[in-house]
């Protein structure tokens, strides 16, 4: 209790509070801009943290981190151009809702779900941090392989009605992620004698192309089609009613749990969590027929999941010194230079610091809600800009976003190529979200499979002798076979 | 994800010619996929390093071949799907308009490297609305100019992401 | 006219964004000369990146210009370094080039640059590596490890952060010197290597001493891979004391595209020295437990060329050479 009070006094300084607000604001902005994401936001504020005392420095970083994960979903809703990989699933429900003229409500759902998911994971970090860290060490490459396969089943969930095309898109994603240096042996694969390709194809430029560029190209096609007129687009911020919330509390809890669990495993991340939560919601929701048409269930599930990752991703980062992804790697780098040594001892000897982090995270999530509520009227107003003008402006900001990731013109061409390909594929009803899933999960699955084979000396059967992995394999098989079983049973009945 | 709002899927009575054209385009997409699969599969028989051969985790092409194989199995399924239902091509006027915008975007990407981000963006930001039939040129020019400058300032001065500059030594 | 009002409101958004971001970004702005971009060829947050960013402020002051750190990661650092090799040699584009892309990668594959594509400005950091095992590992010395390795050939699993990297070569060097066989498990960097150790899939890995010290909670050092003990951490026993002359430092420094004017080069060298000697930089390195190191332009160039040759021989011996 005394430690908690110390933490409170540490936080209740003008500098810390300012750092939280400024950090969250910057985070939301970089999240909103297509292409720029958490990593860029964090590196932007990194130099300032050097000059700051420990707590405000941490507050600034956490603000940027949580804000950027949330911000991406706003662009996903308003323009169908997810600013970050983790909000790709959000676009699938949020954009149709916005097209109905209810962008204000969609942002309301997303903001509330994000805040609640974020707060949930703070609780997880506070109550179960070290335990969860120990549990995450149960996951060796073999378990990661099983988890990767399980997560791949999301492709079925996001390719409603076009399974073969969705699987094909997933394959394209995996193959794209294989281009460049093989992470296991260092051999160059599929580079076709291009030096630029030895670095591989970046996920962010592909996402910017597949969603932002192709969306703008496709909009040109139906400029004259009668849609909700710009003046009928509701702007502002509207929270869903309690009556709408009540049936979705289960979704919220499940999304938060999935996000907290996936976040605690180093090497996965918010994008994986949001896809798993989305397809899980789609499998179990009583309103699953509405998925893809602006169903709030999907929004609640994936937004609570991707923001629940923020708190729990700090578990392995702080308790083990293992950052799970590039985002937490930057934060860990900044913490270390602040003199924070990660490891189990941190939770024993520096509890005041840990408590301060919890409190900062709580405030960040509240501030994030406020920024979302205040900012929504401005963001949704973009919908009232005449389309011919908007298309040009979005293409410009997307191009510069693709450039900004690595400061590389090659990435701009990748985004353009992905944009043209995406427009064609989407026109012919190939879902493009599986390409993102493939690119995110492909490297994990391959790396863990081959690492597993190295560890078992090439014995594939050993993969089925570990309980967690075996359980995941069984769940995966069950999910794949379930539609078949259902169809057979339906046939028996008739 | 776009099955619902894909513009091509309409079941109203349409001329068989338009149906054929749509079907043909879809077949061409599948053909392109087949060609890409073949290309990648061929590339997977390249030379591997001594280290790769010594490693017990299988070579660098072990996993890609599994994925490529899986994709190959999907090809016939896709073809059957096209037989059952194919999308219609868009009308000529919007299609031409879209191709113009795509070409303009390609020119824009190329121009960034030549005349710098700021100049290219002003031109592109002004050109696209005109291509799409928006009138009021003075207003459009003002929007293009102010927007490009705003984005440039945001990146160059605040995010400290240095954007490609023009060769004229103006500093942008 | 409604449209126009809507557009103007849209611009209000950009303006608000700009203004508030400007507030937070103001302190880095040192106006004056043209901005200098330092390319870090690895992702943000790693050792090279943090060191470069720690130098940023000091260099900006000395040069009276904005210093921008740009992460261009990929292909073992060769993408970022080759971008700098191709840049105009006017002193506004530099790379913080580490040992790998400069002296090992060119031997592993065809690259659009080599050791002569650069003008060398300064060595900015150099830290030895250590052989690390889990804190609760039964091994307490290099001798224990080698004895076990000899009895159980191929059973020790060695986590490799990147193929052809210094830790990898160091591991091969250890196996060669001690006459043991190990199972090599490639992972993606220091963090995943630590994970592999903690979850029991790997037995040892070789991080640089700063990474080891930060995680000393969970790790144990068997041997410091340099000739003498460190002044900062004198309790770390060296490999040489235990009978194996292994010396594998990880270092990096500023390089510019070849063809720099002497005056510009001199200015950059002075700025680098100024940044490294500055108190904030030294304090940060002390926090990171990273020993301080510096070489001027001439010495650094000679140093890189020498390492280029030694590492070629090591890679040849390990059978990893491409050409």
Automatic annotation (TrEMBL), chain A:
It comes from the Bacteria. The chain crosses the membrane at residues 20-46, 58-79, 106-129, 141-160, 166-185, 197-218, 257-278, 327-347, 353-376, 388-406, 467-485. InterPro entries: DUF112_TM (IPR002823). Residues 17-437 form the DUF112 domain. The keyword Nucleus does not apply. The keyword Transmembrane applies. Keywords: Membrane, Transmembrane, Transmembrane helix. PANTHER family: TRICARBOXYLIC TRANSPORT PROTEIN. This is Putative tricarboxylic transport membrane protein. It comes from Albidovulum denitrificans.
From TrEMBL, chain B:
It holds the Pfam family TctB. Signal peptide: none annotated. The keyword Transmembrane helix applies. The chain crosses the membrane at residues 27-46, 66-83, 95-124, 136-155. Keywords: Membrane, Transmembrane, Transmembrane helix. The keyword Transmembrane helix applies. It comes from the Bacteria. Residues 29-164 form the DUF1468 domain. This is Tripartite tricarboxylate transporter TctB family protein. It comes from Albidovulum denitrificans.
From TrEMBL, chain C:
Residues 1-21 form the signal peptide. The keyword Transport does not apply. InterPro entries: BUG, Bug_dom1. Keywords: Receptor, Signal. The keyword Zinc-finger does not apply. It holds the Pfam family TctC. PANTHER family: BLR1237 PROTEIN (PTHR42928:SF5), TRICARBOXYLATE-BINDING PROTEIN (PTHR42928). Belongs to the UPF0065 (bug) family. This is Tripartite-type tricarboxylate transporter receptor subunit TctC. It comes from Albidovulum denitrificans.
């Amino acid at each position: 209790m005394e430690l908690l009070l110390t933490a409170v006094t540490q936080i209740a300084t003008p500098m810390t509070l300012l750092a939280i607000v400024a950090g969250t604001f910057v985070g939301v902005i970089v999240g909103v801009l297509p292409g720029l994401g958490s990593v860029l936001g964090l590196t932007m504020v990194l130099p300032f943290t050097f000059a700051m005392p420990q707590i405000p420095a941490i507050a600034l970083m956490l603000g940027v981190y949580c804000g950027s994960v949330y911000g991406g979903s706003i662009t996903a809703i308003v323009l169908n151009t997810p600013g970050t990989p983790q909000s790709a699933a959000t676009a699938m429900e949020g954009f149709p809702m916005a097209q109905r003229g209810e962008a204000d409500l969609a942002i309301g759902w997303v903001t509330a779900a994000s805040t609640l998911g974020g707060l949930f994971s703070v609780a997880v970090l506070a109550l179960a941090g070290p335990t969860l860290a120990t549990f995450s060490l149960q996951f060796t490459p073999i378990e990661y392989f099983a988890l990767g396969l399980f997560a791949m089943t999301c492709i079925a969930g996001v390719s409603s009605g076009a399974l073969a095309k969705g699987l094909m898109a997933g394959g394209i994603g995996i193959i794209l992620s294989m281009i460049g240096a093989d992470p296991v042996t260092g051999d160059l694969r599929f580079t076709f004698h291009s030096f630029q390709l030895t670095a591989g194809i970046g996920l962010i430029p592909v996402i910017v192309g597949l969603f932002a560029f192709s969306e703008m190209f496709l909009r040109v096609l139906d400029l004259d089609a009668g849609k909700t007129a710009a003046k009928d687009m509701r702007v502002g911020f509207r929270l869903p009613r309690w009556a709408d919330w009540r049936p979705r509390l289960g979704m919220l809890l499940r999304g938060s749990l999935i996000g907290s669990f996936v976040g605690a495993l180093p090497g996965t991340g918010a994008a994986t969590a949001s896809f798993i939560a989305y397809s899980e919601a789609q499998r179990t929701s009583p309103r699953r027929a509405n998925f893809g048409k602006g169903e709030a269930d999907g929004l609640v599930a994936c937004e609570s999941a991707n923001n629940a990752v923020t708190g729990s991703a700090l578990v392995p980062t702080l308790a083990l010194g293992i950052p799970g992804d590039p985002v937490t790697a930057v934060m860990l780098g900044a913490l270390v230079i602040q003199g924070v040594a990660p490891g189990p001892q941190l939770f024993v000897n520096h509890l005041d610091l840990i408590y301060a982090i919890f409190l900062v995270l709580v405030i960040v999530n509240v501030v994030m809600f406020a920024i979302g509520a205040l900012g929504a009227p401005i963001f949704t107003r973009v919908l009232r800009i005449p389309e011919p003008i908007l298309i040009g402006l979005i293409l410009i900001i997307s191009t510069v976003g693709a450039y900004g990731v690595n400061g590389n013109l090659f990435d701009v061409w990748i985004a353009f190529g992905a944009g043209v390909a995406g427009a064609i594929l989407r026109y012919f009803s190939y879902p493009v979200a599986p390409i993102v899933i493939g690119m995110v999960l492909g490297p994990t699955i391959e790396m863990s499979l081959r690492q597993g084979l190295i560890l078992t000396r090439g014995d594939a059967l050993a993969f089925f002798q570990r309980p967690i992995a075996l359980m995941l394999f069984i769940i995966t098989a069950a999910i794949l076979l379930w539609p078949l079983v259902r169809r057979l049973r339906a046939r028996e009945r008739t | 994800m776009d099955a619902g709002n894909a513009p091509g899927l309409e079941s109203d009575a349409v001329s068989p010619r338009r149906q054929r054209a749509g079907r043909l385009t879809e077949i061409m997409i599948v053909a392109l996929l087949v060609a890409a699969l073949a290309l990648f599969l061929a590339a997977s028989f390249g030379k591997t390093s001594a280290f790769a051969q010594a490693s017990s985790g299988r070579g660098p092409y072990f996993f890609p071949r599994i994925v490529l194989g899986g994709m190959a199995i999907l090809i016939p399924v896709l073809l059957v799907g096209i037989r059952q239902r194919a999308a219609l091509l868009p009308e000529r006027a919007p299609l031409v308009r879209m191709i113009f915008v795509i070409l303009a975007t390609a020119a824009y990407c190329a121009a960034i490297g030549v005349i710098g981000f700021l100049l290219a963006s002003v031109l592109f930001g002004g050109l696209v609305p005109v291509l799409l039939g928006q009138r009021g040129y003075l207003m459009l020019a003002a929007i293009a100019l102010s927007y490009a400058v705003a984005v440039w300032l945001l990146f160059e001065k605040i995010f400290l992401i240095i954007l490609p500059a023009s060769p004229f030594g103006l500093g942008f | 006219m409604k449209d126009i009002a809507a557009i103007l409101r849209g611009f209000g958004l950009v303006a608000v964004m700009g203004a508030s971001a400007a507030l937070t970004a103001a302190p880095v702005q040192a106006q004056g000369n043209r901005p200098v971009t330092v390319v870090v060829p690895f992702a943000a947050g790693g050792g090279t990146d943090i060191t470069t960013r720690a130098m940023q402020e000091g260099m900006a002051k000395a040069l009276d210009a904005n210093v921008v750190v740009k992460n261009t990661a990929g292909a073992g650092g060769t993408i970022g370094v080759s971008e700098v090799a191709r840049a105009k040699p006017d002193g506004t584009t530099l790379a913080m080039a580490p040992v790998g892309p400069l002296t090992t990668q060119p031997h592993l594959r065809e690259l659009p640059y080599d050791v002569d594509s650069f003008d060398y400005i300064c060595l900015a950091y150099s830290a030895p590596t250590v052989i690390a095992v889990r804190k609760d590992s039964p091994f307490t010395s290099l001798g224990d490890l080698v004895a076990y390795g000899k009895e159980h050939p191929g059973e020790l699993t060695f986590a490799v952060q990147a193929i052809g990297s210094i830790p990898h070569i160091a591991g091969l060097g250890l196996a060669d010197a001690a006459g043991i066989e190990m199972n090599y498990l490639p992972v993606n960097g220091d963090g995943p290597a630590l994970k592999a150790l903690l979850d029991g899939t790997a037995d040892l890995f070789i991080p640089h001493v700063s990474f080891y010290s930060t995680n000393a909670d969970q790790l144990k050092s068997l041997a410091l891979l340099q000739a003498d003990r460190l002044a900062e951490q004198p309790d770390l026993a060296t490999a040489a004391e235990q009978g194996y002359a292994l010396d594998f430092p990880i270092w990096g420094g500023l390089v510019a595209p070849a063809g720099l004017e002497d005056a510009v080069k001199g200015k950059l060298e002075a700025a680098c020295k100024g940044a490294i000697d500055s108190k904030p930089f030294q304090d940060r390195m002390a926090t990171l437990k990273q020993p301080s190191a510096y070489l001027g332009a001439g010495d650094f160039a000679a140093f890189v060329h020498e390492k280029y040759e030694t590492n070629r021989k090591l890679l040849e011996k390990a059978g990893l050479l491409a050409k």
